Amino acid sequence: LGGHVGREFLLQALRVEQVASPDAGPACLVSVAGADAATRGADFRSPLGDLLGLLKSAEPELQCAAVLVLGRIRPNDASIRGAFEAALASAPIQVQVYIADALGRTGDPGVARHLVPLLKTSSPARVKAVQVLIALGPGVVPHLQTKLDAKDPMIKKGILEVLSQFRAEVPAAVLFDSLRDSNLDVAKQSTFA
To answer: How confident is the model at residue 153 (pLDDT cuts 50, 70, 90)?
Structure first.
């Protein structure tokens, strides 16, 4: 699922209404189109706890929908952010794209350490991770510099791709060291930084 079509599909599959509960504060009413009898029309009134449970669903569409909703209503909530970070490594690629986007919504350059592993593939998740890291701004530079010792050349190339957007903030020694990398592709990428 990608772009506008994927987002529309998810919004149709998952209907969420934010409601105020006098005893529990903000909550969500969630109904899932096509869900099994146990979840169809369910009323998840715990403060987002059951919606977080959808991140563990066997259906990637439900995982994407949960990330999309949670990332929009509370991107900086510690429990939501922790759940995103935990799910990132084992989630299907399409879910990783939504998680990377949601982590980017936090505005915290520290999320870079969780996005770096996505750089090791040539998937849409890698593309989204690069976009998010660049959008987070020069604050990601120190977080990425510490990861340049990664053994995976794809990760190094991805980091250098992001660092090339922040040349003024990257020490020349860091780029010079990358020029001497044993992997020719990494050395080439550092010439663009």
So the answer is: confident
Angle, alpha carbons 58-60-66 (nearest 5°) = 100
Nearest to 57 by CA among 112, 94, 25: 94
What pLDDT sits at residue 142?
92
User: Which residues does 31 contact at the CB level (< 8 Å), separation at least 6?
Assistant: 14, 15, 40, 41, 42
Please say whether the beta carbons of 162 and 134 come within 8 A: yes
Model confidence at 111, pLDDT cuts 50, 70, 90, reads very high
Report the alpha-carbon distance of residue 102 to residue 41 in Å, rounded. 25
Buried b (16+ CB within 10 A) or exposed e, 31-43: bbeebeeebeeee
Q: How many residues does the chain have?
A: 193
User: Considering Cα of 35, then 40, then 41, then 42, what sign does the dihedral take?
Assistant: negative
